[in-house]
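We close this part of the discussion by returning to an individual protein. The amino acid sequence and the backbone structure tokens for this protein are reproduced below:
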Amino acid sequence: MNTRTIAAPEFSLRYNEYQSAQINATAAPGFSSGQARKALEDVFDKTMPAGMGYDYMGMSFQEQKAEQGISAGAIFGLSFLFVFLILAALYESWTLPLSVLLGVPIAVFGGFMTLYLRNYENDVYTQIGMIMLIGLSAKNAILIVEFAKTEFEKGGKTVAQAALAGARIRLRPILMTAFAFIFGCIPLWAAGGAGAASRRILGTVVIGGMLAATLIAVFLIPVTFDVIETLSLKFRGKHAIPAREPAVSEGND
């Protein structure tokens, strides 16, 4: 028997019963995972011989399937639509939900701005955070619009006066709940360890969006309520100040 030393891999990797080689790659700073996959595919087509193929595993496989499904724009549109329909059913009105949802773009702007300042990429975790902001920013507006609607229906106040009254009544609860949520997300902002990048991106988007919704949008919600409700009343031909119900007193005529 003759023996000799040779170099060989420790194990033979197979994928779907084919001999294969696994490639683990990370996108360079400033490039998304989709761009990295496209670059790998271009290099493979140009350099590998005929008869060889490739496939994806793990997170890359899930991202590829997600790209083949519903686009991110459609998901955001459906999320916005469903929130609008739920609010329309809650208020029994088609105009009040607009007062609530007009603050969402400000929250989205705050999330993207904070993401840009921290030099993070717009990935799937960013999109998850943006969908969360639709509900979180609408929550602040609901608190003001609900009380403004109640004050206006009591009578004796204009739409603007009712909006200001609702803003004064609910400003403190809005600030308390918003900052409690923001402080609770600080561990995501400064996360460390395995998988910390996804948590930091999610925390950055949510905190930045909620800060914008709390410090900026909360002052614009009464304005949007006033404008939209005034236009709605004019369209329906109603008065801007509802009359008070007549008081009923008992006694001799």
